[in-house]
Amino acid sequence: MTTREAVLGKIRRSLHTGPSDDDRRATVAARLAAHAPGLIPARGQRDPAGRLALFFEMADKVAASSERLASADEIPAAVARYLRSKNLPQAIRRGGDPRLERLPFDREPQLAVAVGPSDGHDLAGLSHAFAGVAETGTVVLVSGPDNPTTLNFLPEHHLVVVRASEIAGDYEAVWTRVRAAFGEGGMPRALNWITGPSRSGDIEQTILLGAHGPRSLHLLVVDDL
Amino acid sequence: MQVTSPAFRENARKALADVTLQKALKNVEKGFIAKRAKAAEALPEFEALRDAARDLKIHVLKHLDLYLEAYEKKVVEAGGHVHWAESAEDARRIVTDICKRLGARTVTKGKSMITEEIALNDHLEKEGITPVETDLGEYIIQLRGEHPSHIVAPAVHLTKEQVAGDFRRVHTHLDAARDLTEPVTLLTEARTVLREKFLVADVGITGANFLIAETGSSIIVTNEGNGDLTQTLPKAHIVMASIEKVVPTLEDVDTLLRVLARSATGQELSVYTTFSTGPRREGDPDGPGEYHVVLLDNGRSAMLGTEFEDMLRCIRCGACMNHCPVFQAVGGHAYGWVYPGPMGAVLTPTLVGVDKAGHLPNASTFCGRCESVCPMRIPLPKMMRAWRNREWERALNPAALRSGLGLWAFVAARPALYRLAARAAGFGLRLLGRGGRIARLPFFASGWTANRDMPAPEGATFMDQWKARGGRSA
Lengths: 225, 474
Ligand code: SF4
Hints:
The complex is a heterodimer of chains A (about 220) and B (about 475). With about 220 residues, chain A is α/β, with parallel strands linked by helices. Chain A is built from seven helices and twelve strands. Chain B is α/β, with parallel strands linked by helices and about 475 residues long. Among the domains of chain B are: about 260 residues, Rossmann fold (3-Layer(aba) Sandwich); about 60 residues, no CATH class. Chain B contains 22 helices and ten strands. The C terminus of chain B is likely disordered. At the A-B interface, α1, α2, α6, α7 and β9 of A face α2, α3, α4, α8 and α10 of B. The complex binds iron/sulfur cluster. The site of iron/sulfur cluster has 14 residues of chain B, from α13.
């Protein structure tokens, strides 16, 4: 007998069930197929403008900074401005995401833009979010050929582009989009919910920003509503 | 880790006399209680979400075998491997085999209570593999050769001065004259030292807060980002998960996540919630080349269908210990094994045996606060009483404990007195916290710190003590 059979057998014995009880199987299959939402808090249930306002408010509460841009073309200038405001060198690393690829970085000639995963030597990284969640001021990032996960964690400053039209009220709305993009039961390899910059309360329960992940999280919200 | 639960009373006595520990433990209240209350209040649906979370987990446990099968199938579809482990020994062997096959020398670790449960670090070291804990709290206690004293805040028993001392002792490559008075300096130093470790590790091991049957994903929830670096950078990611972590769908996880951080740290959500599904895919610029999940039973399947089944709903938020007057007074190490506080008092006897840990359920004032804050509505006091009854039947308990139980029965039968006693415990602790004189605790001292200086019958002692403190009757 394999350990797999042993463990499953013990569970079945404790539950007083056999491997072939069709009712239980049907219940489980139905629940998985339905993936019905549970109780969704009212907080995020607003119109798009209301969601955007809530997103800013919640992001601020978790110490993420943010700004609103009238169009995606303003992103390179906003990146340059952010780096200057933090006294950082004019250098950023981004993924190959087409939505970042087509930005007019040539308008910021002093800004050095590297592309690809981080090896831990970048001070600032730029990513494009898959979605935002107003309920908690969270950004959702998905990994893929053009979206390195290392950019989310290794640089000291993480700048994330979010489209206002892709800010959902709640997590459930994001799962609907994930299923549309990756298929039923499908997921990207890594899907990251990020809610503010990294922090630790491990020393005397005093919360300090900047643990192992980015010390600051800056959200560039493109207002496409 | 060696079980010292049989010595709970002795452990507790030492803890109460430890001035530095008592200073550190004051941070439990500061760090958790008000924050949780505020977070719960800020979400009108919080209580209803607790009901939903409880019901969800009850459903899962009734269908646990089937959800595990569904989960396994999806992990394999995503290119991952699932390893089943009946015992701690199985799990250790699985991990070592993977590490050896990959020629691993250094293994980074995210926070994982079940790796503590199976004493993985000791085992890896014996096999010549260096485990590096990367959660700040876990890193600190690893430097000290200690074990976590809290399931969420492993180093809550330490002061910043102690941490500074450890960093000086271990980080000898740094300037000895550096100033380490501020916690932020300590954090920065740990970040720098651990960054190097992340970049050279061969294998990364994390725990899992949840597993999703619908998608074959494992989830970790952290604030530091250490778990993500642990699992993203090395050649292989090993997820250590116990069998009860599985939930059906992504939507189901939302419900649990909405109560987890609020109950644990009072955050609306932790900073990083990461869903991992299989290894690096074609064209991916980063991510682990292999993805393994170790599914550990280690006694849990035997809890199903018993009076302790409810304990398997636990999502390890730590709220029960944060709100426990006994935990606040003695800290986590006194409990003598991996899981402290009320959840530990219930879980430890099931996992290591009532003969070794049967004392623990006596380390309670039965004030009921643990159950009142538990997001999964686990009836912790009821289960502690069940253990006490079992221990009673087995006649393992010494006479002093019997009289303690007698006292409890006496008080519990009188609701007004019970409420007073419960309040007294909390109030008394606050008083004692100031004076540092814990040996004179009312009520629960009679149960387990024993009445060393109080030869009078416990019931009278409690009332006398209470009157002597100027306590009003209820
Ligand atoms: S028993 Fe409840 S309160 Fe305690 S850690 Fe588990 S879920 Fe949290």
